[in-house]
Amino acid sequence: MHHTGSLAVTDRKIADYVSDAVLPSQQEILGNIVVEIIQAGKHLNRKAICTRLLRGQELATTGKEKQRYQTLIGMLFEQ
């Protein structure tokens, strides 16, 4: 009996889980950006954070990674 359809779904779910586990969380992304700005001797402000978030989004290699950056950018401008 072949279960190739269900195996493919299971394999995809496992791959998605591992992929998510490797990606940094939103808190890690933001923390790394803050450290990067401070270590560069720059002023920590919305513009500096937004610039780094936009650059990170441009360099992101997966849709999920891009979405994490997009969410952070949206949070930056929420009131």
TrEMBL record:
Gene3D superfamilies named in the record: 1.20.5.5260
Domain of life: Bacteria
NCBIfam families: YcgZ_fam (NF040640)
Organism annotation: Izhakiella capsodis
Identification of the protein by name: Biofilm development protein YmgB/AriR
Gene Ontology BP terms: cellular response to acidic pH
